Inverse folding.
């Protein structure tokens, strides 16, 4: 892939231009063929892999990730529901790509990713991509984005910066080092305990800190629990149930690795859908809490631990809980909507208006296309909300989101632990970009 000099991408902090149509610097392309395959993801379940060949002979690949703690409003995957792979096969999605989608996309000129993504949505014909499958559509949209970067003669992140009008930025990685919830077999209700090197100055340093703290934590978990079993995102999954115990382990590991909690903060994704009892009630660490008690609980944790960000602290339909939390701590803590917004620009705008949160998680396959992902980021920025680009718990070695986070300049990514191939593919790509472009700033802004 070319690493040519970035084209003019607008001023720092400029509003992404995606929603207004394709920017003028797009170069058109013609797709000669589209092939798809069923491959395995990091959980060992089938997923969709696409190879898109242009008329110049170049091949552009992408693979779909898959969530486990999915939001009710996400775009819908196509799963075969047959006997193979417990119903999780994706051969229908593969056939759709090689059949209907290929027939629609090949042998004609595409002037930009938005037109191509719109054609995919029109072809699917449902609001949530349920017919062709979000796993089929997202893999094609990602491969097509790589093809547009190729014909533009720039790296993927540079093409994304040109599309969104953003200033490229090296993001703060959020390493998920302790796993619970739907991603692990322990009794920890909170899904993700992440470390975020906010106080360091480069991606390289941040990844080193992530690795060193991960290994310090590994020693502690081995010593104390005689296990180093992992959750789906590569974080440790010791047999603990209380979030406080997990936080104590994290702080000790940060310090044991020689860092301070000014340099390395903690971010949580409780993924509250997973412990919601409905009607604004929750079950945490064996206790039943109503939404007000849960706000108090989080507020207590914020007072006792160096936590800077909490994602999905409340269920996707507990709007009152989100508002109570925002009122209490929204001026000092990042509150991220994941299942709440599902990378949907309209839901993010509503969240900003109703004061649900001050940040949005960004997952391409939640909304299904790359251009709508740009729209979600644009909606957040227009409303002064931060964004964190995210992997899924089921991943492949496709590192698209590393380029996405640099090119959109949003300054935050989570891609699991600093271990396991499908997680480190993203962190390694980030370090590679930084080495080639040392002038890029590291940090949240
Ligand atoms: C998350 O909830 O933020 C997450 C990455 O998990 P999943 O991919 O299972 O939705
Ligand atoms: Mg989440």
């Amino acid at each position: 892939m070319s690493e040519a000099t970035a084209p003019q991408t607008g001023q720092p902090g400029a509003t992404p231009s995606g929603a207004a149509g394709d920017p003028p610097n797009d170069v058109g392309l013609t797709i000669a063929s589209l092939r798809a395959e069923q491959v395995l993801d990091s959980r060992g379940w089938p997923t969709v892999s696409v190879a898109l060949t242009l008329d110049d002979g170049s091949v552009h690949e992408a693979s779909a990730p898959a969530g486990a703690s999915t939001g009710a409003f996400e775009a819908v995957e196509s799963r075969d529901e047959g006997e193979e792979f417990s119903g999780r096969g994706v051969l229908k999605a593969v056939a759709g790509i090689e059949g209907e989608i290929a027939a629609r996309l090949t042998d004609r000129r595409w002037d930009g990713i938005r037109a191509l993504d719109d054609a995919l949505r029109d072809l699917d014909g449902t609001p949530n991509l349920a017919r062709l499958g979000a796993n089929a559509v997202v893999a094609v949209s990602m491969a097509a984005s790589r093809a547009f970067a190729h014909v533009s003669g720039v790296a993927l992140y540079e093409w994304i910066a040109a599309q969104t009008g953003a200033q490229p930025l090296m993001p703060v990685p959020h390493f998920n080092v302790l796993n619970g919830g739907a991603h692990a077999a322990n009794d920890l209700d909170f899904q993700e305990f992440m470390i975020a090197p906010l106080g360091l100055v480069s991606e390289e340093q941040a990844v080193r800190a992530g690795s060193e703290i991960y290994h310090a934590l590994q020693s502690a978990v081995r010593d104390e629990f005689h296990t180093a079993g992992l959750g789906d995102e590569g974080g440790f999954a010791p047999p603990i149930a209380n979030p406080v115990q997990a936080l104590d382990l994290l702080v000790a590991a940060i310090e044991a690795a020689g860092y301070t909690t000014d340099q390395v903060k903690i971010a949580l994704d409780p993924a509250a859908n997973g412990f919601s009892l409905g009607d604004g009630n929750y079950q945490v660490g064996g206790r039943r809490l109503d939404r007000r008690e849960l706000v108090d609980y989080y507020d207590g944790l914020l007072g006792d631990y160096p936590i800077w960000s909490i994602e999905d602290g409340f269920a996707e339909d507990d709007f009152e809980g989100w508002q109570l939390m925002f009122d209490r701590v929204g001026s000092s803590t990042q509150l991220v909507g994941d299942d709440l917004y599902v990378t949907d620009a309209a839901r993010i705008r509503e969240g900003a208006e109703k004061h649900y949160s001050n940040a949005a998680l960004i997952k391409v396959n939640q909304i299904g296309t790359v251009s709508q992902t740009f729209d979600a980021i644009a909606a957040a920025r227009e409303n002064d909300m931060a964004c964190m680009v995210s992997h899924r718990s089921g991943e492949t070695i496709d590192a698209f989101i590393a380029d996405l986070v640099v090119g959109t300049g949003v300054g935050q990514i989570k891609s699991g632990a600093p271990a396991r191939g499908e997680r480190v593919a993203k962190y390694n790509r980030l370090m590679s970009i930084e080495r080639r472009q040392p002038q890029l700033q590291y940090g949240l802004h």
